[in-house]
User: What shape does this take?
Amino acid sequence: MNNFLLTYDPLLPTVRGEQLLQYIKDSRSIAGFHSPYLGTVVLKSDLTVHLLAEQFRGIFIGAPFLLSQIYPVMTGGSQPHEVWAWLNSVPSPSLTLPAG
Amino acid sequence: MAPGAGGQSIPTDITSERGSTASFGRSRKGIAQSTILPSANCNCIALCWLVRRSLTLSSRGSELSVHQGVEETWVKPENTNGGLQHWAAIIRTISTSSAVNPALLLVAMCAPVAIFSMFSSPIIQYAGLAIFAAAAAVTAFQIIWFTFIDPPKLQHDKHVEKMAQLRMNAITIRAKGGTKEISIPEDAPLIDNPQRAGDE
Assistant: This one.
């Protein structure tokens, strides 16, 4: 299970947050999600970042968005305990950090 | 209550946790912009949106840091559009509290036109009345439509804002036969990732 961070501009009139969250909720390829604030969604999915981004291109028609894979052990910030527990609930894939 | 990932019990019933008096402390002003508004009010909505957007961008621009080479300077916000922001807030509130309000605004704008046209030539009188009648017809249509066909839109922004707020304070997990939600208390303390990798 991979963790992803999806960000978009919630002020764009073409992007409707409710529709996006409903799509994410209905998508069988997404195992869970949390939207801590507008324009940001944390996702869990077995898909790769490219496959998942391809799915979202159908939702963000012409609107910019950014989808990046995140690794719990490499993630920091200030969030409630429940969010960290959920984010860390799957074993992180082994990281190979670049040398140097 | 449902077991959380760390073995602790995490409440899952959002409604019972918050009840009907849930406060929207984390609400954002952009929520209403994601609402679906009727196309009949495109002009009015576009006007309101442009006012809001321009004021938002202008206020943002004054607060953003300006990169000049390696130095970073902060531009002091200018308080020159306080009055405009006040009116923008009013427009934002009344234009999004109900899907019918933009049409009501249109009628309110057309009414003086129709009244003043009464003191002019008959052609202008007819034109003023026609404009007012068109706006009134649109409003009447919307009231009928949203009353009988699409009732949630009458207070759509509140509905959407409440749903969005509930989702912001919840983690949705796919489970057998649907989804379940792990609610996050609004007053939950914010902590750093307890399992983050070391800095070395």
